[in-house]
Write a structure and sequence with these properties.
CATH architecture of the largest domain: Alpha-Beta Complex
Mean pLDDT: 93
Helix content: 25-40%
Number of helices: 14
């Protein structure tokens, strides 16, 4: 990285006046600044631990897009994509830059998109040093030569200490994350949760790439095998996206955000990983555990007086996290680009316990399940509540998708057909009964199923080798190397057909109910990809 202050920059053009600008500090310097300002504590693993304050996760109801000439006819305005008035943005922006003026602030130039043809230069302006360290970890790091004539295209302004006045400023409450596509600004205030920084740029790319670059943006992880075959893993939080793509036998492209180009390459948007650490153990996830060292940032974890982290302690939040630069993982693809996508995995943690642990999808089913983006939430800590709740997030990333979900699904369908990709639905959730009755599918078996696919052991669909699920219509393999055969049939693991089908129909009805919002936009092929049977 470039040394501190080898280049002086001015932020006057942004309206930030007389600030003390700490430009392009190294990771070590930002680590030390955080300790000096008593904004974090060093853990026994060497990583710095911070508390993000009031917000320990994204606040989707406080994410807005400025409604203007660029966005008004293109964005899918909804509960997810909330409109913000242009003049309200300008007034709020002026307040935020006035707030940052005359302060010490941390500025970093970086970029997104590992493929040179799609590169997006970003300037990140932070109130706190650890937020700037997060930007160092998560975005791609320019060389000294690249910094010399660096011209930012997008600007992220991040002021956690600034509180909006909802009645005056047009926000819902005091925190906000607002995208302005005309001014190319992500404006974030009132929240210290760092995920808003990376997801702001991800959301921008989810508009820019399909609209202007004929590239499908994906909320997924990806890795590549020795033969050059790329695998893509879609999944919502808690389904195993980071865990399953971090494979000692394959090179990691990235763990969360990628683009799939017209040239049939897959590239990482980011320069780091942002992994959940709830119940993390060295035995189960050695690569991620080893990445937690100096240069990493732990968020909202509990430590003892010796700095030893209790990864099982969720007293602050279940969404405990670690951010680290991708080079903390030994086995990575450099640059973060893969070619020749061969297999796509849709990961779901089905707490109803009715979906097969692995099944093969037709193109129509793949599009349907992509639009649905199903996983399930478990009741968790509430006493006496054991009913799982279905959770649907279109394209496995609805909060970050400004366009209508069917636009992404149709792009995916086209790319899958052109590339001849196999698509698999992987249930990392429950087996032998729903949450509270059955048990979570052991990670070693899920890994064995994915390895079997990547090795070509499950082959093409043939009736002798696959059983068609009577409710969901998906093809479940009858055998799989390294996996007990009885686990492959969810119905067989229940030992109670009546209870199994009652629960399966309940979930299929939830799928159909959720899909009603998309039916008028989805073509006939996609509509036929859903559950085959359902309860009246």
């Amino acid at each position: 990285m470039v040394d501190t202050n080898t280049k002086s920059i001015s932020l006057n053009s942004l309206g930030i006046k007389n600030a003390t600008i700490r430009y392009q500090l190294t990771s070590n310097e930002l680590h030390q600044e955080t300790l000096t300002k008593k904004q974090g504590v060093e853990s026994s693993l060497g990583a710095i631990a911070v508390n993000t304050g009031e917000f320990t996760g994204r606040s989707p109801m406080d994410r807005f897009i400025v409604k203007d000439a660029i966005t008004k006819d293109e964005v899918w305005w909804s509960k997810i994509n909330l409109p913000f008035e242009e003049d309200k943005f300008d007034k709020l922006y002026d307040k935020v830059v006035d707030y940052l003026s005359e302060k010490e602030i941390f500025v970093r130039d970086s970029y997104a998109c590992a493929d040179e043809n799609y590169k997006l230069n970003i300037r990140v302006i932070n109130e706190y040093p650890w937020s700037n360290m997060f930007a160092y970890n998560m975005f791609l790091r320019p060389t000294e030569a690249e910094l010399e004539n660096f011209s930012p295209e997008w600007t992220v302004i991040n002021a956690p200490g600034f509180m909006a006045n909802a009645d005056v400023d047009g926000t819902r409450q005091h925190n906000f994350a607002i995208l302005n596509f005309s001014k190319k600004i992500a404006l974030i205030g009132g929240t210290g949760y760092t995920g808003e920084i990376k997801k702001g740029i991800f959301s921008a790319l989810n508009f820019i790439l399909p609209m202007y670059k004929n590239t499908l943006p994906m909320h997924c992880s990806a890795n590549v095998g020795a033969a050059g075959d790329t695998a893509i893993f879609f999944g919502l939080s808690g389904t195993g996206k980071t865990t399953l793509s971090t494979d000692p036998n394959r090179s990691l492209i990235g763990d969360d955000e990628h683009g799939w180009t017209a040239e049939n390459t897959v590239f990482n948007f980011e320069g780091g990983c942002y992994a959940k650490v709830i119940n993390l153990s060295q035995e189960q996830e050695p690569e991620i555990f080893a990445a937690i060292k100096k240069g990493a940032i732990l968020e909202n974890v509990i430590m003892d007086e010796n700095g030893i982290v209790d990864f099982a302690d969720t007293s602050i939040t279940q969404n405990t996290r670690v951010s680290y630069p991708i080079y903390h993982i030994d086995n990575i693809q450099q640059p973060s680009i893969g070619k020749n996508p061969k297999n796509i995995f849709f990961l779901t943690a089905d707490a109803f316990g009715v979906l097969p642990p692995i099944s093969k999808l037709t193109p129509a089913q793949a599009a349907y399940h992509f639009i649905s983006g199903y996983t399930a939430k478990v009741a968790g800590t509430e006493a006496g509540v054991t009913e799982p709740v279905p959770s649907f997030s279109a394209c496995f990333g609805a909060p970050f998708m400004p366009l209508h979900p069917t636009r992404y699904a149709e792009m995916l369908s086209k790319k899958m057909k052109e590339a001849g990709v196999n698509v698999w639905l992987i249930n990392t959730g429950w087996s032998g009964g729903k949450y509270g009755v059955g048990r979570r599918m052991p990670l070693k078996y899920t890994r064995a199923m994915i390895t079997a696919v990547l090795n070509g052991d499950l082959g093409d669909y043939r009736y002798e080798d696959y059983h068609i699920h009577s409710v969901f219509g998906v093809a479940q393999p009858r055998t799989c190397p390294g996996v007990p055969t009885e686990l492959l049939s969810p119905r067989a693991t229940w030992n109670n057909d009546e209870a199994y089908y009652e629960t399966a129909f309940k979930l299929s009805n939830a799928f159909r109910h959720n899909f009603k919002q998309f039916e008028e936009f989805a073509n006939e092929e996609i509509r036929r990809g859903g559950p085959q049977r359902y309860a009246h």
